[in-house]
Amino acid sequence: MLKRQVNDIELDYEDHGKGQVLLMLHGLGSTKKDWDAQVPFFSKTHRVITVDLRGHGESTKPKDAYGVKLMTEDVKQLLDQLNIKKATLVGFSMGGAIAFEMAAKHPEYLENLVIVNSGPDFNAMGQIGKDLLQNRTHFLETQGLEILSKEISFNMFPEDHQIDLRNAFETRCKNNDYNAYYKSFVTLMDWGLGDQLKDIKTPTLVIASDMDYTPVSFKQDYVNRMQNASLVVIKNSRHGVVLDQPDAFNLELQKFLEA
């Protein structure tokens, strides 16, 4: 277990392998364990860093200080502390928002950008976003985090053979601090890049699942608005593609890194 002080908090992280850096950013309500299927694969050829974002896992859980912009500054300071000048950022879901923000605000740090089942404007997702914000906050306030964790985990891993994935993700999710989860969620849903998206020049791979919460067309639309981005779709996968189709995901990421 490794710790670094950034922005008056401690970030917990792991550091494996040598070579060009892959910094992997997990999703809302989860931890660096989202990347358990990627670390052994990519650490053979890269230096792979996984981190618990503020409010998550073993990192500090502040009372009020949350938001994508603040989490992005945490990531920048972590890279500075580790004396890393360039990295490929791989962001899943909420981690994708942070990776996008990093590409917009601190592009000099990025070798490549990889966005996994995420988007550049959580605050402008139309009815899907409005429903998600309303339904999830209502669910949290009326039924609590433990029941919400069960619901989210089942939706991500509904098949019988996915029971171990479902149980593990449910445990990670329900172990969250309620306040940290709530504030991470509402600040995420208030974030967006807007017109800054078109200015991102970093080579970008967007990985989408064919059964994600948002359709493939949603990802294709923002890929079309970027200067240097491509889209790949992984079949028979839901939101947690890094977990439910790790071999297919690893292959697509490897191909992108080698191109």
Automatic annotation (TrEMBL):
Domain (AB hydrolase-1): residue spans on this chain: 21-134
Record's GO cellular component terms: membrane
Pfam annotation, one family: Abhydrolase_1
Entries under InterPro entries matching the protein: AB_hydrolase_1 (IPR000073), AB_hydrolase_fold (IPR029058), AB_hydrolase_sf (IPR050266)
Gene3D superfamilies documented for this protein: alpha/beta hydrolase
PANTHER family: HYDROLASE, PUTATIVE (AFU_ORTHOLOGUE AFUA_2G14860)-RELATED, MONOACYLGLYCEROL LIPASE
Protein name: Pimeloyl-ACP methyl ester carboxylesterase
Lineage: Bacteria, Pseudomonadati, Bacteroidota, Flavobacteriia, Flavobacteriales
